[in-house]
Fold 4-aminobutyrate aminotransferase.
Amino acid sequence: MASRRLLHSAKALSLSAARPAVRRSAPALTSVRAVSSFVAGEPEAPVMKTSLPGPVSKGKIASLDSVFDTRNISILTDYNKSVGNYIVDADGNVLLDAFAQIASIPLGYANPALIEVAKTPAMINAIVSRPALGNFPPEDWEEVLKTGLLRASPKGLDKVFTAMTGSDANETAYKAAFIWRRQQERGGYDVDFTAEEMASSMNNEAPGAANGLSILSFKGGFHGRLFGSLSTTRSKPIHKLDIPAFDWPQASFPSLRYPLDQFEAENAAAEQACLAEVESLITTYHNKPAAVVVEPIQSEGGDNHASPAFFRGLRALTKKHNVLFIVDEVQTGVGATGKFWAHDHWDLETPPDMVTFSKKAQAAGFYYTNPELRPNKAYRQFNTWMGDPVRALLFKGIFEEIEKHDLVAHTARVGDYLFGEIEKTLAPKFPGQFENLRGKNMGTFLAFDHPKRDAFVKRVKELGVNIGGSGEATVRLRPMLIFEKGHADILLAALEKAASE
């Protein structure tokens, strides 16, 4: 049944693509339609009027380029017309968005519940009077945190440090790790600094500057583009070229073979080898790791996965050697993997020491529970804004909608359906084009490898579906939490059509 449906959809796509240019305004996906259950007024299907970018977009991008770097632009977007799961460009092309601003939109464009949040006096006040949270927090800041960000806190973590971006969240988590480690070495949380430490820190020298400490990360990992986070980013040279970097260690991340059930022994051996390398680096690297940072899924590095057993092994090593365990959930957090936090899939005996977040949360920061991860003196972990109350209020609305519609379980179901259709229908029909399909039982956080990835992604966009890539050859899917089975059918038809050409 699924194969016949996709075949029928592909035929419709083929007919649409064969039409003369004068009829380009006809929907590219005429036989597959879906209406959102969550956002009223969403289009039923993609509508492609021009090539990408179209003439209006080209003109506006050329003009914009005189004042702004436009080389990264994927779609010049009309956000006044984008709604639900659909993104609209300046030429009126309507695309099903299965990339969601690089995994950052949880509830779709123009979500009515979030529009109502935006209209509230609290939101207006936060926008207009923008508090410097460290010095002048609003009188209800505790309530805002407890009814929003802290309601969603990972199991075992009951405190939050708010930040501006994912990179900022990781930077502040690293600072917390270094301060914690040095206080231990100094003799305890309440021990004060020496005069030598204070003077030498001004010269970037030991003992005041902890130059002998590091953060251990993994090959293929991505943790941001600021100085500290960039030193732990190992995904692409373009991120790091010409930027001074810290001498910090990197361990190998497991390179699993697929399908997983056919390579259990080989994959388990690969993971054990990586864990042995991590332990060796913790115990022998000349700049001693204060923390290990890891993504549940290496997103920018190519959607690289590891088993729950691997992450439990990491946790055990960090506990054994008194090293902090930081889980970077900037891209994986807030429901996309079929759990609210991706590390919930691991069944850890003890929680991570810190969990960083951003993207779908629309806010940013890190969760923790150990009070000693809060520096022993004021201003050691500080900046003007220390996050944004606007985003904290928005997250409260996001969390309430996720709970109201049970969107985490919904995403798990839709992800199972989407994975199953790619695995059982598309992969066998198009050998080599849906290689190393990964993300089973991980919600809609799915990916596969394609030998001509860039051309394939471009063609799927021309068919009216926005998807993305990562790593060297990976196609990644990053739908919103309101992505439904009908939207998955549109995506599947576009993937099939692009694969058949």
Q: What stands out?
A: The first strand starts at residue 86 and ends at 88. Residues 1-28 have pLDDT under 50 and may be disordered.
